[in-house]
């Protein structure tokens, strides 16, 4: 019976750590939602993402402190000499990739742009804040503590495939989602997981995630679609 819960080093098995993490996260999410709903409009997407980020940060902090005996930033948020490079590279790569998609769509005639700068600037601070919250929350949740424990318990390939699938299914409620969009999000999960594995840092996947979503919003949302194409936020 003891071996079900403990490994050969007499430590709690990674599977149980992952389960405990998600139980903590869900309980915190429910408690914060129910408590703050008395004072704030939880239906507001910004408030919802902020609560989710707070929940995942607290859950990660508790797991790192009491189960790993490490600091919170050791989950992949420690500032290192190459952190600026990772963030810059992620922002630039995300911009280049979404620009390529836009140029192809424009060339093929799928999109026609009809917007002015007045449509962009009033929303830019809100968009920056929202997409930063989303990127930090989802990367800490899907490439943070539970993903890293699954790598330790299995291997990087298995962990990447499992969490990319979970990442994709977590976006089932996205507007106009379909099988192609879910496949694209799964592939994005593989891409983001690989960026963590290569750097052992969350700064690159966070900046990639933010850059893709933010620039997609500003390149594709103002576009008038000539054909029905789904945007792939993740």
Oligomer: single chain
Roughly how many Å is the radius of gyration?
19 Å
Q: Order of SSEs, N→C?
A: HHHHEHHHHHHE
Instruction: Give the class from helix and strand content and strand pairing.
Output: mainly alpha
The largest pleated sheet is described as: 2 strands, antiparallel
What does it look like?
- The chain has a two-stranded antiparallel sheet.
- Helix 4 (83-108) packs parallel to helix 10 (203-220), helix 7 (145-153) runs antiparallel to helix 8 (156-169) and helix 9 packs antiparallel against helix 10.
- The chain has helices at residues 2-5, 14-36, 45-66, 83-108, 117-120, 124-142, 145-153, 156-169, 179-199, 203-220; strands spanning 111-113, 223-225.
- It is mostly helical.
- It is built from ten helices and two strands, in the order H-H-H-H-E-H-H-H-H-H-H-E.
List the keywords.
234 residues, mainly alpha, two-stranded antiparallel sheet, 68% helix, 3% strand, globular
